[in-house]
Design goal:
Layout (H helix, E strand, L loop, with lengths): L1 E4 L25 E7 L5 E3 L3 E5 L14 H13 L5 E3 L2 E8 L2 E8 L7 H11 L6 E7 L7 E4 L8 H8 L9 E5 L9 H5 L5 H24 L3 H11 L6
Parallel strand pairs: 4-7, 4-8, 8-10
Antiparallel strand pairs: 1-2, 2-3, 5-6, 6-7, 9-10
Helix pairs in contact: 1-5, 2-3
């Protein structure tokens, strides 16, 4: 169950009274703690996760390559029954849990290149450690529909990721779930490619990847980076290779 307690700076904060079912602009400064009794009667507490999908707000960007990060958040939201119904720090957010682990789902609303203006303040406000900030976004260096989960990385010339790193004091040591969208064909302009919608075949591949991404996020939240993560990345890397 969830309950509010006073404690050291590590976890998501929210008021005790029906946070999940009402709108508000600024949650009270309480720590949310998920706990389970162990065989000896002690409570096991969990550090929460900030799961951030990058994209651009507005209907005209829905379904475009650059917005698959938003779509990943939507899939997690639906799978875990978490409603994103609160605006805070220029972001649409929702608080819930995966298993007993509290999570905060985030879709920055200040446009892609300014995503850090949401992530930095939210991470600071809820006092979430870097190792529990999961960023999910489009990645041109991966084939369409291929995922990659890693504990840290650079920005890869992705402006949204650059902004997040800048607002985390230049730190890069936070997990990423990259969603492959492939490279522009021929001499096609990169911006036009990113803001273009997927073809029917590409859409099918991305939809399947998003479902696989939900399972990968669940495993990460509940078990951390482990052998299953390595297996997941290998399966993703070669899933379109014919033997």
């Amino acid at each position: 169950m969830f309950h509010a307690v006073s404690s050291p700076k590590t976890c998501i904060s929210y008021p005790r009274n029906n946070f999940f079912h009402r709108r508000h602009s600024a949650p009270a400064r309480l720590r949310v703690s998920a706990s389970l009794p162990d065989p000896n009667g002690a409570k096991v507490e969990y550090t929460p996760w900030l799961i951030v999908g990058l994209g651009n707000p507005g209907n005209k960007y829905n379904g475009t390559r650059h917005n698959v990060g938003f779509e990943m958040i939507d899939h997690i939201s639906q799978a875990e029954g978490i409603v994103l119904n609160t605006i805070q720090s220029k972001a649409l957010i929702g608080i819930g849990s995966i298993g007993e682990v509290p999570i905060l789902l985030v879709k920055p609303q200040a446009y892609m290149n300014f995503s850090g203006e949401s992530v930095g303040p939210l991470a600071a406000y809820y006092q979430v450690p870097l190792r529990h900030i999961l960023l999910t976004y489009d990645e041109m260096s991966l084939p369409n529909g291929v995922l990659r989960l890693q504990p840290k990385a650079g920005h890869g010339y992705h402006n949204g990721v650059k902004s997040v790193i800048e607002h985390l004091d230049g730190r890069r040591e936070f997990p990423r779930l990259c969603i492959g969208i492939g490279n522009p064909p021929g001499s096609m302009d990169m911006k036009a490619y990113l803001l273009q919608k997927f073809s029917l075949m590409e859409r099918k591949q991305v939809d399947a990847a998003l479902q696989q991404g939900v399972d990968a996020v669940r495993n990460l939240i509940l078990h951390g980076f482990n052998n299953s993560t390595t297996k997941f990345n290998l399966e993703q890397k070669y899933k379109y290779h014919k033997v």
